[in-house]
Design brief:
This protein has 335 residues and is of the alpha/beta class. The protein has a single domain, classed as TIM Barrel. Helix content is 37%, strand content 18%. The strands form two sheets. Strands 1, 2, 3, 4, 5, 8, 9, 10, 11 and 12 form a ten-stranded mixed beta sheet that branches. A hairpin with a 7-residue loop joins strand 2 and strand 3. The radius of gyration is 21 Å and the shape is globular. It binds ligand PBG. The site of ligand PBG has 10 residues, from helix 6.
Length: 335
């Protein structure tokens, strides 16, 4: 059944595709710069700027270089940033994650000082960038199997989050897929006087091959084992919905699906099931695929980037985290 009331030839779908004005007027999904979040890989090394080889156009940046990039992004209408820290030293617990002089805490203070409330700063709360073994918390091994010690990691996660709150984060985003993380962080924040600070939960995070380039960018590949005992099996849809509902029950203010492209169905279901804002992470491997094909002249880069971002919005994401954010800002409207 359609709304047309009549079939061809009385109704002709192509009438609506006759002009740009008509297409613009009836477009169902729109992109605005204020829906995009741009990730930053931060180093505590003045003047540092090093391109990530598997993510052409993306860089590890010193705090000063990142400040310059934020300035440029703001002029284009991108005002939200997701911060990842790459510490100069790692240990088995990832202790620099809760250091007030750690790279993310220092960056938050510097960016806040430079831009005040003109920017929205989101911190990724996890340990894989900080631990010497590259796993997302405290681990031990059992018969060559990596066991992430969920309940021993939770207080450390809360501690890391409070440090970032004190340094000026606007939103905290736990990404480790630990059970009880949202509740533990909420209690930690509330106890430290941050009951007003929202949590963006990486609720449905799949154990994905599409994170490969990120692990180069953040220098965080697991040194042994993999993340399949804490991230989700790509085959599971109901489990993803359950994880989302659990996080909402624990106090999540916004929920996320990650990666985006191979999981557009999950984004749509989450959007239909919750009244909270839904974010999707257009991850490093998705970025790398487009850049690699475009470099070979196999794809029209601009067209494919816009089609990708539009598809994620059409699937139901309110917020898109994307390495394309700054380049795409030149092509899309401001909110
Ligand atoms: C964990 C984290 C990861 C990403 C974001 N946060 C890596 C992982 O889970 O292995 C991946 C993002 C991307 O691939 O762009 N701190």
């Amino acid at each position: 059944m359609s709304d047309a009331g009549s079939a061809f030839p009385a109704f002709r779908g192509r009438r609506r595709r006759n002009s740009h004005g008509l297409l613009d007027l009836t477009r169902e999904t729109r992109l605005h710069t204020d829906q995009l979040v741009y990730p930053l890989f931060l180093r505590d090394r003045p003047g540092f700027r090093q391109e990530i080889s598997s993510m052409p156009g993306q860089f590890q940046l010193g705090i000063d270089a990142a400040t310059a990039l934020i300035e440029k992004a703001l002029q284009k209408g991108i005002q939200s940033f997701l911060l990842f820290g790459i510490p100069e030293a790692k240990d088995p617990e990832g202790s620099s994650a809760w250091d007030h002089e750690g790279v993310v805490a220092k960056s938050l203070r510097a960016f806040r000082k430079a831009f005040g409330n003109a920017i929205c700063l989101i911190t990724d709360e996890c340990f894989c960038e900080y631990t010497s073994h590259g796993h997302c918390g405290i681990i031990h091994t059992e018969d060559d199997r990596v066991v992430l010690e969920n309940d021993r990691t939770l207080p450390l996660l809360a501690k890391q989050t409070v440090v970032h709150a004190q340094a000026g984060a606007d939103i905290v985003a736990p990404s480790g897929m630990l059970d009880g993380a949202i509740g533990a962080i909420r209690a930690g924040l509330d106890g430290a006087g941050f009951s007003h600070l929202p949590i963006l939960a990486y609720s449905a995070k799949f154990a994905s091959g599409f994170y490969g380039p990120f692990r180069e960018a953040a220098q965080s590949p697991p040194q042994f084992g993999d993340r399949s005992s804490y991230q989700m099996d790509p085959a599971n849809r109901l489990e993803a919905l359950n994880e989302v509902l659990l996080d909402i029950g624990e106090g999540a203010d916004m929920v996320m699906v990650k990666p985006a492209l191979a999981y557009l169905d999950i984004i749509r279901e989450v959007r239909n099931r919750t009244l909270l804002p839904v974010a999707a992470y257009n991850v490093s491997g998705e970025y790398a695929m487009i850049k690699a094909a475009a470099a070979k002249g196999w794809l029209d880069e601009k067209r494919v980037i816009l089609e990708t971002l539009t598809s994620i919005r059409r699937a139901g994401a309110d917020i898109i985290i994307s390495y394309h954010a700054v380049e795409a800002a030149d092509w899309i409207g401001r909110g």
